[in-house]
Amino acid sequence: MTWTAPTVDRTKPPTTADERVALDTALDYQRDTLRWKCAGLTADQLKQRSVSPSGLSLLGLVRHMALVERWWFQVNAAGRTLELPYTTDDNPDGEFDDVDTADAAADLSVFVAEVAGARAAVAELRLDHTFPSHRGTAMDLRWVYVHMLEEYARHNGHADLLREAIDGTTGD
Predict the structure, then answer these.
(1) d(C-alpha 118, C-alpha 77), whole Å
(2) What is the Cα 56 distance to its own chain's centre?
(3) Is-contact 68 172, C-beta < 8 A?
(4) What residue numbers bound the domain in which 127 lies?
(5) Cα(46)–Cα(37) distance, rounded to whole angstroms?
(6) Furthest-apart CA pair in the chain: how many Å?
(7) CATH of the domain at 25
(8) Which tens digit of pLDDT belongs to each residue from 54-78?
(9) Number of separate domains in the chain
């Protein structure tokens, strides 16, 4: 039996909202867009690499975004001590490099769990909540939201190209 990614419903963010609602809903839309780009594909299609020399794949992007969800919201903003998924000191790019033997269904579940964990970790924090970054500079939760929107927008652009190469599907 071939596994196929489930369908995804995306809800567009409101055009008027307070800052937190605007950031949360815009980020959720970007999160859903990545899952939407994966919808209806088999595990093998999710693992399909882009053109050489890049090893980029849709599954690699999902794994990477699960990692950065944990890194920015839980580890940095909320100050939790957690291991990062998919990577080790010996394999710092494991989220991208190790997709050939990965379990696509499990990795998509990890992504969904990391998004939920990220939401929960910062739910009670104010946008002006500051914390020391891994580089020792002060940053606030607002910066994390803006950075994650940028990160998703860039990688969703990659996902557009990957999906089009796989089956010709295009869309916003």
Answers:
(1) 9
(2) 14
(3) no
(4) 19-167
(5) 10
(6) 50
(7) 1.20.120.450
(8) 889 999 999 999 999 999 999 999 9
(9) 1
